[in-house]
Amino acid sequence: MKTIAFVDLRRQYEEIRGEIDRAMEEVISKTAFVGGSFLKSFEEGFAAFCGAKHCIGVGNGTDALFLALKALGIGAGDEVITVANSFIATSEAVTMTGAKVVFVDIDPRTYNIDVARIEEKITSRTKAILPVHLYGQPADMDPILEIGAKHGLKVVEDAAQAHGAMYKGRRIGSIGDIGCFSFYPGKNLGAYGDGGAIVTSNDEWAVRARMLANHGRVEKYDHDMEGVNSRLDGLQAAILGVKLKHLPEWNERRRRNASLYNEYLKNSGVVTPFEIKDVQPVYHLYVVKCGNGVREKFQDHLKQRGISTGVHYPIALPNLKAYAYLGHRESDFPVATAASREIVSLPMFPELVRSEIEYVAEAVKDFRM
Ligand SMILES: *Cc1c(COP(=O)(O)O)cnc(C)c1O
What we know:
- Helix content is 38%, strand content 13%.
- It is α/β, with parallel strands linked by helices.
- The protein folds into two domains: 9-104 and 111-241, Aspartate Aminotransferase, domain 2 (3-Layer(aba) Sandwich); 246-366, Aspartate Aminotransferase, domain 1, CATH 3.90.1150.
- Helix 1 (9-29) runs antiparallel to helix 7 (234-264).
- Pyridoxal-5'-phosphate binds at residues 60-62, 86-87, 89-90, 132, 158, 160-161, 182, 184, 194, 196.
């Protein structure tokens, strides 16, 4: 029997060990721990990669979202519209600013925000739309930008799972007003600890975000306002700088692995991922739908064959206890609620090989028979 991890970060490190170890030694010998040339060089590289003018390294993806919203002036009394299916960091960041989070149900095919249901949630207090490119699948940005422009709303992208994804020839993260990334180790571009970044082509928001992330200052002790301490450190920046060069190839391998899964899972009974037109997803996760009421058995079946799986996410955000105060019922978000009970994430990472995908697919088909 094989053992197939859900994600294997060790395999990737083995491939690039020399480069990573050299980069870390350099940071330490130059004591460039906070700020410094490694950070600057990564920020420039990542901005260029995203097709944006500015990149600001921050402490993590949650802070990237929080600081982006703050830089746009969003706070108490405002409302931010986001999606019912995501990691809690998305909605947490809204609440952290003092604004109210307003959820929208999902598209049943993509599990991303249902763009047809956004406008009904807009009020006089709405300030921004916060779409998530979940699983590395681009949200349908054109209608979102159109709604944003029509109602004078900002658009902030949660690109924490979509480094390098493309939407109609544009890079995810540089399509809305501000894009936010996480470099949590398991993400497509992952640090060896926590990290995050904000990208934007707007000079004013870039300056504000950078100040807010660094105690509200530009120079050493000239604090124009209060901010927070949320910085991408030198070691993480150097590691990310090495890994950024490999990201296009790693994303390509994820896409190849997804198409192998698609091929092997034909007629298996599970619903494979759906790609909207003219996009290039980067398969942070490969999520299938396994049918109502069988998920636990399905995951057990795979576990017995040495295959680890995950669920992203088992409870839709509005149904979490954390949001009980909003007074939602499950029937308010029928699509997200139904999906949360049927979705399963299969092992997905660039270093996964064909024979392993075949093995997983066989185990999936076995369950169906
Ligand atoms: C990982 C993630 C975040 C938060 O990033 P952290 O670096 O863990 O703070 C936000 N949104 C989504 C969709 C994520 O997957």
